[in-house]
Amino acid sequence: ASDPKLFQPLTLRNVTFKNRILVPPMCMYSAKDGHVTDWHLVHLGGLASRGVGGICVEATAVVPEGRISPEDAGIWADSHIAPFRKVVDFSHAQGTKIGIQLAHAGRKASCHAPWVQDRAPKGTSYVAQKEENGWPDNVRGPSELAYHPKYPTPKGLSIKEIDDVVQAFIDGAHRSEAAGFDFIEIHAAHGYLIHEFLSPISNGRSDEYGGSFENRIRLLLRIATAARAAWPNKPLFVRISATEWVEGPEKEGNEWKQWGLEQSALLAQKLYEIGVDLLDVSTGGNSSHQKIPAGPGFQVPFAAEIRKRVPGLAVGAVGLITEAQQAENYLKEGKADVIFLGRELLRNPDWPLEAAKKLGVKLKAANQYERAWYKL
Ligand code: FNR
Fold first, then answer.
1. What is the pLDDT of residue 1?
2. Which GO terms describe its molecular function (predicted)?
3. What is the pLDDT of residue 332?
C-alpha cells in the first residue's frame, strides 16, 4: 500500500505544510479589543504541537465594525501584531505552519458569542447592544437588507467606504506579514461582508458592485488582487460558501436567484487567474431560510466539483469530516488537496496522531505527546 496521502506534504508558493490536515478558522470569542490572548496561545499552541500540518487563525476583523462579536480577533491596529507573533512563533517552533483569516462580518456584525445567545430566551439576543460593547448602529453591508429581522439593518457601503474596506484588507495583509504568518485566507463565506456582495439574496445595489455576476464578484476580486499584491510570496487562500442552501434554483432564465455552485466555479477560475493558491470550500450562512442537509462530508461534493473544473487550483474540503479513512479517501479520490477538521479537533486535538496510527504511519509531533501514541 502506498503512503497515506493525508500525511504527504503539500507545498504552495514556497510554503510546505508537513501534512494535509489543517485547522479551519474557528472564532474563540476570547480576544480583548481585537488582541488575541493567552487563550489563543494555549488553544492554537496545543493544536500546533499535536501534529496538524497547518492552522488558520479565526476570522480576524480588518476594521473594528467588521467583528462578528465584541470578543473577535482584529488586525486593524499595529498593537494587534505582537500577541499574534507569540502564537506564530510557538507554532513555528512546533514545525506547524500558521495563517490568518482576514474578515469583515458585514451585516452579521455586532452579535453575541454563541454561548451568550444560548443563555437568553430563544431568538432575543443575537445583537450585542451598545452597552454590551456592540455597535448595532454602525453595521455595514452591501445595502440595507438585514440578515433577519432580529439582526441590525446595515448601512450600505458608499463607494468611498468600499475603497476603505479594500485598503483595510491590504493593511491587514501587511500586519499579517509583520506577525510572521505563513498564509492568508480571505473570508468570503458564511454570509459575511464579501459573501453578502456575491449573493443576489443580500446584495441590493444597483451600481457597479450589484446586479450582474461580474458586479457582485467585483469586491472580492478587488480584495483578492490587492491581497495578492500585498502578499506576493506566500500562499493566499479564499474561503467561499459554494451554495446557500435556499430552496429553488440558482438561476431562473437569465437571472441568478441565489449564490451557488455554477457561480462558485466561475469565480474560482477568476480567483485562480489572480493567483489565489487554495479555495477553501464551505457552504451556507447567508440566509436565515437555509435548510442544510448536514451529514458526513456533506460539503465535499462542492469542493470536488470545483477542483475538477479549475485544474491547478488547490482545494480544501471541510465539514463533518471526522474519520481518518474518510479524510484519506477524499484525498485519494481527488476530491480535495487538503482536509480542514474543525470540531473534531476541538473534541480530539490528538486526532492527527491517532489518524496516523490508524493509517499505519508515524507522525512527528511534539515529543511530549508523540511518545504517548507510539511508545507503549
Ligand atoms: C467556526 N467556523 C468558522 N468559519 C470561518 O470561516 N471563520 C470562523 O471564524 C469560524 N468560526 C467558527 C467557530 C466555531 C466554534 C466553529 C465550530 C466553527 C466554521 C468552521 O471553520 C468549519 O467550517 C465548520 O465547523 C465545519 O467543519 P467541522 O467542524 O464539521 O469540521
1. 52
2. FMN binding; NADP binding; NADPH dehydrogenase activity
3. 98
